[in-house]
């Protein structure tokens, strides 16, 4: 085997080696371009806000401090808002993924007479919708305003996720599903015991999409629950904090976490960088555990033979 590998390497032409080198250089450049904004945000968030005004902060803080994070977490609503964000992310992801998988399994069955019509009806909603005002009126008529479920129910069905899951299910061997039916299993039993376990890669992929959306969403809070502080989310509280910081700077100078004049400046740039790190940290910690499923799910769910 070692001799074979050696022969393969020996047969590489000069053009192949140049291409490999150029590919490595390009991928390293792409990695640096991708990581630099986040590293820069982290450096600014860990640097003294007064010192950051001078500029020149790139990948390493010049004056280390935790004051920016203390300012953010000193806000009283942050802890409760984080709990609401976590709750909507977990519940919304689980419920949406399960419902999308059921719909995808249904329209993937060749014996479902209306599969083409239902698929077309779903796809059309990706290009056309009622608009902001009709959606607001619908939510109000359903009595979902001022309710936690306004974060869950409107986003239960994601058409893109359904298409991806359906493409994956259609590639499953039909013999496995037929054997389950021969053993006496109904459609729901086949779905729960056969389809779901085999579809874990694509379900992990769509779950990550849904979780990122739920975690980052704040506009629905602004529209439907802005008057209810007990239903506020982390992203919405961070957005309000940034607005207050901008108003404080333009109005009466820098403010501290208690609303009084601050000894050290807390600038909008420092707050924005800190907010970015706080908001993205949970997703960054979860992603490595789902990465292999993410790559496999996108590969298998996006190609149909």
Automatic annotation (TrEMBL):
Membrane topology recorded in Swiss-Prot or TrEMBL: Multi-pass membrane protein
Subcellular location: Cell membrane
GO cellular component terms, semicolon-separated: plasma membrane
Family of the protein in this entry: Belongs to the binding-protein-dependent transport system permease family.
Keywords, in A-Z order: Cell membrane, Membrane, Transmembrane, Transmembrane helix, Transport
Membrane-traversing stretches: 21-39, 77-105, 117-136, 148-169, 190-215, 270-290
Alphabetical list of PANTHER family matching this protein: ABC TRANSPORTER PERMEASE PROTEIN MG189-RELATED-RELATED, POLYGALACTURONAN_RHAMNOGALACTURONAN TRANSPORT SYSTEM PERMEASE PROTEIN YTCP
Main location: membrane
InterPro entries attached to this UniProt entry: MetI-like, MetI-like_sf
Domain ABC transmembrane type-1 intervals: 82-287
Species lineage: Bacteria, Bacillati, Bacillota, Bacilli, Bacillales
GO biological process per UniProt: transmembrane transport
Protein name: Carbohydrate ABC transporter permease
Pfam families associated with the record: BPD_transp_1
């Amino acid at each position: 085997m070692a001799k074979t590998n050696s022969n393969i390497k020996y047969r590489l032409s000069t053009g192949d080696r140049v291409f490999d080198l150029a590919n490595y250089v390009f991928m390293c450049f792409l990695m640096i371009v991708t990581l630099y904004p986040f590293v820069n945000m982290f450096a600014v968030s860990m640097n003294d806000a007064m010192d950051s005004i001078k500029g020149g902060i790139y990948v390493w803080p010049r004056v280390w401090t935790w004051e920016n994070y203390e300012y953010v977490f000193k806000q009283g609503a942050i802890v409760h808002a984080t709990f609401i964000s976590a709750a909507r992310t977990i519940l919304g992801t689980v419920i949406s993924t399960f419902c999308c998988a059921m719909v995808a399994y249904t329209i993937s069955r060749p014996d479902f007479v209306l599969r083409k019509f239902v698929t077309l009806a779903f796809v059309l909603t990706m290009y056309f919708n009622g608009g902001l005002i009709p959606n607001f009126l619908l939510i109000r008529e359903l009595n979902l305003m001022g309710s936690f479920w306004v974060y869950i129910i409107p986003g239960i069905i994601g058409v893109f996720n359904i298409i991806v899951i359906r493409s994956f299910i259609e590639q499953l061997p039909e013999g496995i599903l037929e054997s389950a039916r021969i053993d006496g299993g109904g459609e729901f039993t086949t779905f729960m015991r056969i389809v779901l376990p085999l579809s874990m890669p694509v379900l992990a992929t769509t779950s990550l999409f849904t979780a990122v959306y739920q975690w980052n969403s704040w506009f629905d809070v602004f529209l439907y629950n802005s008057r209810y502080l007990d239903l506020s989310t982390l992203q919405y509280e961070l957005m309000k904090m940034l607005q207050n910081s901008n108003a404080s700077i333009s109005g009466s100078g820098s403010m501290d976490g208690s609303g009084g004049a601050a000894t050290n400046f807390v600038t909008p740039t420092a707050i924005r960088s800190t907010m970015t790190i706080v908001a993205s940290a949970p997703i960054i910690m979860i992603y490595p555990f789902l990465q292999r499923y993410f790559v496999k799910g996108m590969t298998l769910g996006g190609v149909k033979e």
